[in-house]
Design brief:
The chain has about 160 residues and is α+β, with helices and mostly antiparallel strands. Helix content is about 30%, strand content about 35%. The chain contains four helices and seven strands; from the N terminus they run βααβββαβαββ. A seven-stranded mixed sheet has the order 1-2-3-4-5-7-6, sandwiched between helices. The longest helix is centred in the N-terminal third of the chain and has 16 residues. This is GNAT family N-acetyltransferase. InterPro entries: Acyl_CoA_acyltransferase (IPR016181), GNAT_dom (IPR000182).
Length: about 160
Amino acid sequence: MDTTATIRPAKPGDTEAIMNLTDAIALFEGEELEELGNMLAGYFDGSLGEEHSWIVCEDDGVVGVAYFAPEQYAYGTWNLYLIAVHPKHQGKGNGTAMLRQVEQTLFSKGERLLLVETSGLPNFELTRKFYRKQGYEEEARIREFYKAGDDKIIFRKALVTPLS
């Protein structure tokens, strides 16, 4: 990772930078961006619950963001709902550093699994390759989930060694 970058919990003052970052990666559109803004507001006002976590990667401004939360009806299972790095700062280890921070945070709390979902479209191949490189295994594929021709792919990583 770039030695000047730091990872820290998101603060209310980061909202605009996070929204600009997610707009720059062009992953979300209109209503989705609005919902993301509502989720951030809910995190900062405490209405999402204390277990929800947003972190940012900062290098002379916010260059990356990650959001993770527990799976509601499972014990020790968490979802990484968002991880993104500004296009100008990709390929420098920032995404890997944020992912490791998420994993270490959950591991230290004794959590069991981290799930990540992504699209099956060809333009998400680098994303899928990234997760595989980080030790995630493809656990499920739901065909045509997002829309016709766009599968939902779920990756899984065990955070603790299972008991023998």
